[in-house]
Design brief:
InterPro entries: Pep_chain_release_fac_I. By secondary structure, the chain is an alpha+beta fold. It contains three helices and five strands; from the N terminus they run E-E-E-E-H-E-H-H.
């Protein structure tokens, strides 16, 4: 079991990995070795994810989620297969953790109190008086 949060864990048997040739740096190995990793997680079929987390995951995943509800993460940043596997798993866990945190409650708009409005008007009046006292026309020296 892979621990995602304190309450959510996913089984290692729910993940499948495919290896493919990576683009980018790799020297002489780039055309010979399959170092890129494509990690697949059947999120919608997972019994370990609550429905609310699944709904948020669909939104967060965007194009990485297939129509069948399979989350596909491709990692090819590194030159070795092992580091790409770790990178893909870490990105999956980060995405699941983000989906597991519920959104904050919506902000309820409030109105300023009567005293706050009065303070604002008083401050405007004082500021205007200060500016008026500065005044004078050029050449009135």
């Amino acid at each position: 079991m892979i621990r995602v949060t304190g309450r959510i864990s996913i089984g290692e048997d729910e993940l499948t990995e495919d290896f493919l040739r990576a683009s980018g740096p790799g020297g002489q190995n780039v055309n010979k070795l399959e170092t890129a990793v494509q990690l697949r997680f059947a999120a919608m079929a997972s019994p370990n994810l609550p429905e609310a987390v699944k709904a948020r995951l669909v939104t967060l995943a965007g194009r990485r989620m297939t129509k069948d509800g399979v989350l596909v993460i491709t990692a090819q940043r590194h030159r070795t297969r092992e580091r790409n596997r770790e990178d893909a798993l870490q990105r999956l866990l980060d995405l699941l953790r983000e989906a597991a945190t519920p959104p904050p409650p919506p902000r309820r708009p409030t109105k300023p109190s009567r005293a706050a409005k009065a303070r604002r008007v008083d401050e405007k009046t004082r500021r205007g008086a200060t500016k008026r006292l500065r005044g004078g026309k050029p050449g009135d020296e």
